[in-house]
Amino acid sequence: MTAASEAIRRIENNSELHRKIISALKTGSTQAISQLLNHPVATFIIAAFEDWQSNKDG
């Protein structure tokens, strides 16, 4: 979870990467993001961003 939190912090501080990830999540490309990250914490990161996006839009 610590690794996922750090990854999210870094993504949030990189506006271009953040935009690409949110765009991919909106199109349902979670599998592509998982492959891009290629790391065991990818699942946690994707879930956190999905939750963040749903709360932001909601």
The ordered string of helix (H) and strand (E) elements is HHHH
Kindly report the average pLDDT value: 77
DSSP summary, beta strand count = 0
What portion of residues belong to β-strands?
under 5%
Structural class determined from secondary elements:
mainly alpha
- Count of DSSP helices? 4
Query: Globular, elongated, flat, extended or rod-shaped: what is the shape?
Result: globular
Straight-line distance between termini: 25 Å
Low-confidence residue ranges:
none
Helix content: over 70%
Question: What would your notes on this structure say?
Answer:
The protein is an all-alpha fold and 58 residues long. 81% of the residues lie in helices and 0% in strands. It is built from four helices and no strands. The protein has helices at residues 2-12, 15-26, 30-37, 42-57.
